[in-house]
Amino acid sequence: MTKQQLFEQIQKKRSFLCVGLDSSLDKIPQHLLKYENPILEFNKQIIDATKDLCVAYKPNTAFYECYGKKGWENLIETWKYIPNDIFSIADAKRGDIGNTSAMYAETFFNDKSSEMSFDSVTVAPYMGSDSVTPFLTFKDKWVILLALTSNSGHADFQLQQIGEDKLFEKVLKTSQEWATDEQMMYVVGATRGSAFADVRNLVPNHFLLVPGVGAQGGDLQEVCKYGLNSQCGLLINSSRGIIYASKGEDFAEKAREEALKLQKEMEEILINADLV
User: What are the residue boundaries of the Orotidine 5'-phosphate decarboxylase domain, all occurrences included (predicted)?
Assistant: First the structure.
């Protein structure tokens, strides 16, 4: 999916919502445990309930890898179930020496070998360009670099001063030499608030994947105040706040209700910004 195609989906659905599929056996409704693949059944029902309200799905691969062979099968089948017109993100946070990163890229981008071909993958940039560029060799695929994250320990390194820049600013500046805004996005946590102004000064045209809205307490209006650009430029992720809205048999219905609340708020933001 190209940047323009993604923006067109945002305009069509009046939404820039990404639903995180962080699906865990100990959190999904217990009645689903009767199924052969409870997590896959859960994901399918969540997707069916929300696919008209969101423009992206983001399975966090840790929630699949931990179940071994069955987990990988569920990840593959979940990717296959995501509609083709919805942006798919493998939240894998990979990044290693060049030949290893090349194998990670094959894992998430080459369906001939792995049976998966996500539109994008999250990548840790701290080993430098040779750990990132193998992901960029795949045509029409995206790298989403970790820049300024939403976790409490982000300040340990990301905010450290490196000469004139903080470390996350150095990442934003340097990585733009590796790819354009047509192939690279950045992770910027919603809990960072007004820091989006600093981010946008450095990457005005890039899409930002924004976790932390919902259960982590990020404020959608504040993120949009500083982060919105002329093509929206935001994918706002909500995971637990949507998929675990209910632990009962009405879980898919309740997930839709939560997704709809965010979509309506996003629609109003897009209208006010003259983007739809």
Answer: 16-255
